[in-house]
């Protein structure tokens, strides 16, 4: 058993507790089975358990060691179980002369068997019997379990004989793994010894390859279930990639195949160096620290670092804010660096396994490559690298010392030859990182090779990711090193900053290889016409390089680009282009989503910023890569359509052509395509329908949506329906689209938003159109709730039913909103300063109200209701949600169609909307 430090005895006084138990029995005239006595015993154990856990939490705050806390809690549990067992066998079910069948051993298995226990972890117990169960054994087991359950503990348990354990271990890998860490708590020691002896001889013998293959497959399945990335912004500390379970898996395999019982024995086995084992212990301790704090904080077996817990954990663990980085972001960066180290240790460990057992367990080889074993062969033009077993490796251990540029060159060779890395090469790379000095960073050949890797036409993302995982990328580009494992504390970004940048490069590469044509047709077309692809790749790689700094990351990033690009060999003109793209990388997405693209002033202002067609082409592709790399549910076809519309509106102005002519031509082309796709429509119906929409509709609507709208309106007209609704579920984008056709009304958007809020639906975006006959055609995008499409459609139908009732006046909205609207717990973790601005310079026809702040259910309903109460006419609305942050833009006029210019009225509007943003009301806003 693991040794316990002397100070841990302060968790519980075993002798005093045993004496207290004896006194309780004596005070009940020795009637140990008395019901009242059991209640007092239970109260005593509850008191000791509570005191011990409290002490363990205090000690965690004192020394900050999670592994020590886990050991202490395991020790506390051991003491309680021994006390319960001793009491049961001494007082309740005492046997004076026990036979061989009336013996048992209580054994800790699984995680508890490692002598580590989280504050709310399950207690996994094996009640080991020499032979079949007896009445005595059954009674003792039942007494122990009921006492633990009554203490509020979660107990996983099994009662088995020696033969059962051996037999089941041979066929059940879960049982085999649990027994691997079996540890005796109390009872018959010889019985435990017999189990270990038989387990070793009859189960473990000659089954190492089977166990390794099963554990690696189990790990892969777990990673897939958890998102298959160690850089998810709400990671699972136990089960996620780079979490505790990965370390446990390594140790399980190490115990099994190297026959070790202690971690440090892996050094003697040649698996880890002393330094690497020190990293193993350090990462294990940090993850246990996070897990113990998480359990203590939530008072439950919570393993997921959700947003609403991250800030509190950062405070508990002593992280402080720094300029440009909140305390929670510093804490999470530390977490992701540790998760990255777990990945490094996994590769080192598997390299040792492959070296020692690869031929016996081919399943290990897939961790590195599927290429079969082949003899060592040379690479043409390379003296320092060779191919071994189908993978790139080093000629000898001195290759990086002889020429440190080889630390970059090896990745360029891997890219050129399309080779995976041999584990020996990766191990030596990590051990040689100190050779990447200022001299290497300034070396022309090293920088030329890096740019070649970045702009590769093969798979630059994979090579850059291997460089990052090996630590080379952060050393060679220190500015990149600063954002490695950096988390952005918001619900919008799904990955760390470095992971986001690498994914962006990968998406750019896929666009250039013409693999994303259906999603990004314009980007596919434009990338072939670029004058300089190097500039674009560099801008994509650097666009978020300055995250975490006090100043605006776009402006700071441009400064970083101006410093780095000359080092990479770019010309002055190329450097300025990269710097401009980095500084403006948010411009196109912001304008396309938050501005009225039918307003000529919007387009002219955008053209003034962009200046040239070449810059607009690159900016559009950069914008696509940026949005798409944020997360799997961020990009959607509507955002693509808005970007294309902005591009096409700006193109004739930037090329010196006539905007009006081009616009008319595009309108005509859109209508021609639309008409060609209609089926079963008469010429009269077609003409009437084309006249139904204003030009803005045709410019902002994609073809599929236009055809769906046409069928919706045509069907409603034939049936004489004043209100019609259609539903479209978008599984990949995790969005459900609801289109509403209804008589136009100043409060229509407010009613729609209120109905959605009442139904518990969160509006992500909204698109508003008015037809020439006085009807509104509004499309709202709500976040998806169910994975299955049929379930999501049922939910959408319920929303539509409520919405229809509200629009027909059959249901009063305010009570429903008040009843349903609740703050989501995870939103409370974020702090966003509410802001309202009125701008008369962004449009020639309307006042643009920009509203930003913390999103919440019912916010859009409150804002639109406030605008209606202020007698403002909403010409267009642009709803953007960046995770927990909402940025809404409303183009409004007064009831006469004029802008809002009166200073007092502008101030009243700002105050009213600020109050609505905060969930309050003002005198100018009726309740």
TrEMBL record:
- Please give the catalytic activity noted in the UniProt record: [protein-PII]-L-tyrosine + UTP = [protein-PII]-uridylyl-L-tyrosine + diphosphate; [protein-PII]-uridylyl-L-tyrosine + H2O = [protein-PII]-L-tyrosine + UMP + H(+)
Task: For the region Uridylyltransferase, give the residue spans.
Answer: 1-378
The protein's matches in PROSITE patterns, at most eight in alphabetical order, are given as: ACT (PS51671), HD (PS51831)
Q: Provide this UniProt record's keywords sorted from A to Z.
A: Hydrolase, Magnesium, Multifunctional enzyme, Nucleotidyltransferase, Repeat, Transferase
The record's EC number reads 2.7.7.59, 3.1.4.-
GO BP:
regulation of nitrogen utilization
Q: Where is the HD domain?
A: 497-613
Task: Provide the activity regulation entry from the record.
Answer: Uridylyltransferase (UTase) activity is inhibited by glutamine, while glutamine activates uridylyl-removing (UR) activity.
- Which part of the chain is the ACT domain? 737-814, 848-927
Task: State the domain notes.
Answer: Has four distinct domains: an N-terminal nucleotidyltransferase (NT) domain responsible for UTase activity, a central HD domain that encodes UR activity, and two C-terminal ACT domains that seem to have a role in glutamine sensing.
* Role summary: Modifies, by uridylylation and deuridylylation, the PII regulatory proteins (GlnB and homologs), in response to the nitrogen status of the cell that GlnD senses through the glutamine level. Under low glutamine levels, catalyzes the conversion of the PII proteins and UTP to PII-UMP and PPi, while under higher glutamine levels, GlnD hydrolyzes PII-UMP to PII and UMP (deuridylylation). Thus, controls uridylylation state and activity of the PII proteins, and plays an important role in the regulation of nitrogen metabolism.
Family listed: Belongs to the GlnD family.
* UniProt name for this protein: Bifunctional uridylyltransferase/uridylyl-removing enzyme
Which organism encodes this protein? Cohaesibacter gelatinilyticus
What taxonomic classification does the UniProt entry list for its organism?
Bacteria, Pseudomonadati, Pseudomonadota, Alphaproteobacteria, Hyphomicrobiales
- The primary gene name is glnD
């Amino acid at each position: 058993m693991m040794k316990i430090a002397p100070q841990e005895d302060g968790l519980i006084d075993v002798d005093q507790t045993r004496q207290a138990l004896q006194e309780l029995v004596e005070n009940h005239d020795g009637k140990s089975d008395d019901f009242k006595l059991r209640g007092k015993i239970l109260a005593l154990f509850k008191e000791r358990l509570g005191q011990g856990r409290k002490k363990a939490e205090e000690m965690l705050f004192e020394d900050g060691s999670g592994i020590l806390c886990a050991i202490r809690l395991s020790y506390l549990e051991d003491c309680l179980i021994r006390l319960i067992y001793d009491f049961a066998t001494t007082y309740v079910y005492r046997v004076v002369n026990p036979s061989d069948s009336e013996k048992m051993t209580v054994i800790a298995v699984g995680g508890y068997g490692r002598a580590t226990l989280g504050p709310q972890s399950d207690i996994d117990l094996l009640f080991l019997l020499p032979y079949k169960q007896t009445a005595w054994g059954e009674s003792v087991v039942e007494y122990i379990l009921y006492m633990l359950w009554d203490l509020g503990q979660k107990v996983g348990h099994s009662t088995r004989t020696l033969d059962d354990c051996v037999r089941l271990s041979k066929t059940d890998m879960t049982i085999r793994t649990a027994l691997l860490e079996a540890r005796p708590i109390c009872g018959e020691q010889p019985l435990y010894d017999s189990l270990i002896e038989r387990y070793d001889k009859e189960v473990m013998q000659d089954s190492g390859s089977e166990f390794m293959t099963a554990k690696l497959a189990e790990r892969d399945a777990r990673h897939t279930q958890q998102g298959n990335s160690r850089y998810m912004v709400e990671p699972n500390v136990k089960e996620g990639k780079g979490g505790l379970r990965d370390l446990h898996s390594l140790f399980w395999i190490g115990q099994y195949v190297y026959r070790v019982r202690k971690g440090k024995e892996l050094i003697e086995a040649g698996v880890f160096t002393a330094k690497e084992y020190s990293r193993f212990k350090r990462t294990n301790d940090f993850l246990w620290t996070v897990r113990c704090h998480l359990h203590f904080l939530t008072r439950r077996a919570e393993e997921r670092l959700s947003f609403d817990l991250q800030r509190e954990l950062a405070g508990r663990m002593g992280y402080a804010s720094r300029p440009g980085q909140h305390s929670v972001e510093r804490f999470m960066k530390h977490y992701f660096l540790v998760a990255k180290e777990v990945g490094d240790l996994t590769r080192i460990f598997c390299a040792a396994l492959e070296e020692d057992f690869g031929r016996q367990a081919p399943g290990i080889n897939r961790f590195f490559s599927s290429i079969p074993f082949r003899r060592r062969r040379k690479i043409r033009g390379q003296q320092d690298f060779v191919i071994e077993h189908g993978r790139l490796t080093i000629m000898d251990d001195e290759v990086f010392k002889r020429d440190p540029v080889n630390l970059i060159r090896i990745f360029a060779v891997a890219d050129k030859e399309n080779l995976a890395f041999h584990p020996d090469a990766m191990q030596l790379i990590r051990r040689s990182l100190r050779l990447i000095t200022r001299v290497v960073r300034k070396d022309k050949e090293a920088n030329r090779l890096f740019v070649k890797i970045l702009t590769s036409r093969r798979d630059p993302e994979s090579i850059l990711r291997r460089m990052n995982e090996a630590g080379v990328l952060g050393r060679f580009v220190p500015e990149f090193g600063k954002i490695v494992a950096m988390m952005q504390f918001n619900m919008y970004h799904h990955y760390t900053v470095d992971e986001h940048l690498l994914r962006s490069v990968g998406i750019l590469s896929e666009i250039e290889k013409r693999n994303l044509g259906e999603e990004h047709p314009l980007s596919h077309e434009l990338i072939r016409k670029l004058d300089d692809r190097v500039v674009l790749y560099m801008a994509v790689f650097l666009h978020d390089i300055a995250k975490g700094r006090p100043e605006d990351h776009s402006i700071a990033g441009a400064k970083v680009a101006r410093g780095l690009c000359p080092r990479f060999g770019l010309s002055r003109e190329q450097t300025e282009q990269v710097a401009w793209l980095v500084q403006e990388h948010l411009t196109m997405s912001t304008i396309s989503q938050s501005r009225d693209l039918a307003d000529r002033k919007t387009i002219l202002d955008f053209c003034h910023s962009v200046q040239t067609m070449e810059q607009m082409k690159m900016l559009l592709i950069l914008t696509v890569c940026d949005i798409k790399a944020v997360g799997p549910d961020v990009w959607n076809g509507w955002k693509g359509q808005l970007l294309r519309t902005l591009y096409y509106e700006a193109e004739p102005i930037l090329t010196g052509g006539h905007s009006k002519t081009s616009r008319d031509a595009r309108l005509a082309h859109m209508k021609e395509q639309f008409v060609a796709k209609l089926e079963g429509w008469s010429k009269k119906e077609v003409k009437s329908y084309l006249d139904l929409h204003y030009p803005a509709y045709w410019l902002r609507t994609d073809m599929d949506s236009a055809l769906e709208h046409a069928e919706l309106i045509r069907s409603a007209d034939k049936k004489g329906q004043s209100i019609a609704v259609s539903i479209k579920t978008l599984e990949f984008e995790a969005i459900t689209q609801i289109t509403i056709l209804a008589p136009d009304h100043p409060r229509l958007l407010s009613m729609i938003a209120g109905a959605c809020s009442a139904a518990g639906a969160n509006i992500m975006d909204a698109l508003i159109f008015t037809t020439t006959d006085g009807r509104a055609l509004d499309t709202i995008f709500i976040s998806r709730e169910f994975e299955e499409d049929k379930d999501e459609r049922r939910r959408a139908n319920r929303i539509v039913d409520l919405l229809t009732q509200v629009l027909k006046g059959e249901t009063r909205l305010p009570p429903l909103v008040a009843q349903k609207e609740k703050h989501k717990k995870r939103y409370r973790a974020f702090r966003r300063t509410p802001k309202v601005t009125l701008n008369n310079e962004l449009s020639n026809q309307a006042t643009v109200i920009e509203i930003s702040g913390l999103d919440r259910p019912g916010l859009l309903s409150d804002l639109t209701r406030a605008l209606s109460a202020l007698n403002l006419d909403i010409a267009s609305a642009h709803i953007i949600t960046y995770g927990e942050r909402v940025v809404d833009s409303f183009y409004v006029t007064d009831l006469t169609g004029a802008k809002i210019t009166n200073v007092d009225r502008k101030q009243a509007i700002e105050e009213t909307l600020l109050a609505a943003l905060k969930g309050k009301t003002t005198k100018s806003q009726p309740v």
